[in-house]
Amino acid sequence: MPANTTEIERRLWAAADNLRANSKLRSHEYSTPVLGLIFLAYADYRFTAAQPTLTAASRRSGTTKDDYQAAGVLYVPDNARYSYLLNLPEGTNLGQAVNDAMRAIEDDNEDLRGVLPKLYNRLDNTILASLLKAFNFSEIMHDLEGDAFGKIYEYFLGKFARDEGGKGGEFYTPTSLVKLMVEIMEPFHGRIYDPACGSGGMFVQSARFIEEHRRNPTTEISVYGQEKTAETVKLARMNLAVHGLSGDIRQANTFYEDPHTIKGKFDFALANPPFNVSGVDKERIGTDPRLPFGIPKSDNANYLWMQYIHSSLNDRGRAGVVMANSASDARGTEQDIRQKLIESGSVDIMLATSSNLFYTVTLPATVWFFDKRKNGTPREDQVLFIDARKIYTQITRAIRELSDEQVEFIANIANLYRGEEPEFIHSTREQFEETFPDLTYRDVPGLCKIATRSEIAAQSWSLNPGRYVGVTARAADDFDFTVRLSELNEELETLTAEAHKLELRISENVQTLMGEVRREIVDEAALA
Fold first, then answer.
1. Which of 325, 231, 324 is nearest to 35 (CA)?
2. Closest CA to 367 of 383, 350, 392
3. Which GO molecular function, any one, fits this protein according to its record (predicted)?
4. What is the per-residue pLDDT across 387-403, written as a single tens digit (0 to 9) for each?
5. pTM of the entire structure?
């Protein structure tokens, strides 16, 4: 019977967590060596698994590095083999040995040059030996099924993002939300772009979607990403390698640089850019062909991101972008840009999500979907609004996720709206048919509604799903006082904690000001 992946993830996390308590690394630094060791173990596992087949195929000429790379397997030289590191004599400087192993892999695999971590000489030999043993996947992989490595890597990315708070949100978007975006966009084939790619989760889930539909992602899609932080670029390239993918990931600040020359180039674009960024130098932006609808006067980059995504699509392109709720109703020049986007006919679906889906912010978000292939069809004049704020699975008091069944349910609403056949891989057919009899789309109060552009214009071009979807007719019957009270109590605790932090900051600032005033009084008295 296959082992429980979740249990193994927890066991490995407990082993890795020792590093935080017993190393010289700061808390936000220990993710890098752990993810590096998972990568090393993965590379060795794939290399070992491919050896018999490749050796048999090239018995006469001998197996070369090119044979492995042609088979989509990283070449692992002898001094980077996991078994070699595990069996080094006692007293060997393990940190140096692991650093050398990382360099050796980079030397033989050009795509990874400069990407792998080499800070293992900062770890104590005992701790590193313990970690190497814990991540010896050759002992546990035979008990696992499917893409176990990928799942374990994602589990660690998610845990680190959760632990690192705000900084973690820069590189990680919750997997269930990315799954939902991918299910709605259906990126079966073509070029995929992410201008704020973080750890590359959008690409990984796109590849998984293709595999679930029995196709080969390495031949179906090409991925292009950019990210302004060098360390995050490395994280993304390692994540792609762990999942057997390659891609063109560049370090660049999207506001001022366009390394992929994106305009009209991509079949799909997915992004979770940082919300409400201020301080963008608009003079430096100048005239940018990626911003055809203008530059907003407000000090907020939401509508810059939106245009980067929109203008990157070709005539058949689809996109999904996670955005702050406030962008749906923003006024002034942001409203003017939103009106132009709607009038272009490519705004396709607006989806309101539950709060607490993100590790770094408690507020709900809205996912915007563009679809340029609907231009010239009856849907050009329509936008589907989905209010999924009440659809979630509570994981902890502060964290919610979307289950596979919930993702399937929501994605099938989009399928019906587009006139496509719904898919029922996760046994949601009965529940779905209760809401959509005969598998035919209909507006459902509190859940979904199709609005025309004239209806949207009458709402001052607002794209807030709540303005259109309304409330469920059976709200009173469905009201669960205990659940609602728990939600309100949770919200109150969050607000109270934030208020306490503000109170402390105000108190500290007042004390600082009082001190400066006292010093000025003393100085003036001394001068007198």
1. 231
2. 350
3. methyltransferase activity
4. 999 999 998 777 788 99
5. 0.79
